[in-house]
Amino acid sequence: MWPFICQFIEKLFRETIEPAVRGANNHLSTFSFTKIDIGHQPLRINGVKVYTENVDKRQIILDLQISFVGNCEIDLEIKRYFCRAGVKSIQIHGTMRVILEPLIGDMPLIGALSLFFLRKPLLEINWTGLTNLLDVPGLNGLSDTIILDIISNYLVLPNRITVPLVSEVQIAQLRFPIPKGVLRIHFIEAQDLEGKDTYLKGIVKGKSDPYGIIRVGNQIFQSKVIKENLNPKWNEVYEALVYEHPGQELEIELFDEDPDKDDFLGSLMIDLIEVEKERLLDEWFTLDEVSKGKLHLKLEWLTLMPTADNLDKVLTSIRADKDQANDGLSSALLILYLDSARNLPVSYVLMDTLLS
Questions:
Q1: Could you give the 3-state DSSP secondary structure of residue 145?
Q2: Which of 3, 30, 262, 301 has the smallest number of CB atoms closer than 10 Å to its CB?
Q3: Helix, strand, coil % (nearest 5) of the chain?
Q4: For the segment 264-300, what is each residue's pLDDT rounded down to a tens digit?
Q5: From which residue to which does the signal peptide run (predicted)?
Q6: Is 272 exposed, middle or buried, given 0-12, 13-18 or 19+ CB atoms closer than 10 A?
């Protein structure tokens, strides 16, 4: 299947990733791939997990542990600046979810196939000519990390690739499903964090300037920085849409802000199935990957209701917390699906530019 998968990947690069990069920055508006060759080494599937509980009977959910290390040849250019770069090799490691739905009573038994990463995969790219690319005016603030984020986020939930296998399937409902729920994250405080700032060449240990990065899929939030404090209090609230469970997790990383490179202060991963079961969690969590430190979180699972019968009750309950979130707390969710457009005016801007 690998040669045919490569054809699909080339189409994905040209039709999805290329427009995404163009739209990320005005200076990238003429970005394009001039050659895409993924190579002959196929990706490996190192493990498969099948979910049989808490799933709809008309669907099959598979989690694939994938690993791809391949030599490839991908050339790209920015015509506006006559700048070219390339990719010699790519590594991708992560968990890809495959959803087979709806199951139907006729062949091929599966109505459509949906693919996406539950969280941002580990993506490493060996560039050629990237230095020249980043020397372009307006791009010097970018980095290869930002470019990787642009690419990987378009493969991470809620973004998904949906392939219909029969003509009768409602593709819009599969590509843009209604969220399973909303996770309200009260990012409250931490205790006993490691002191990363040092003085007198490391002889005297100081404090840290901690902040947090919170992720749910490709939804990312960053807290404010608390200066010189090992027991910071943030008291901030974030709200994230949850599209898939089981399998999705809340990921938190704490860092010490520094002028050069921020120091790692610990991490935390929480299975959202547990939050949904409890509906409300208010606990101190021990930080992973560090010798000490705890994080105080309050997590609320909010269910989407089809009517506004309980709206007054919801509005009353959130007024007490309205000052905690920068944008206020939500009481309802508006979902807008832009289907298509017709009879748009033809743009002659490019032609006018050439004639002038």
A1: helix
A2: 3
A3: 20, 40, 40
A4: 999 999 999 889 989 999 999 999 999 999 999 999 9
A5: none
A6: buried
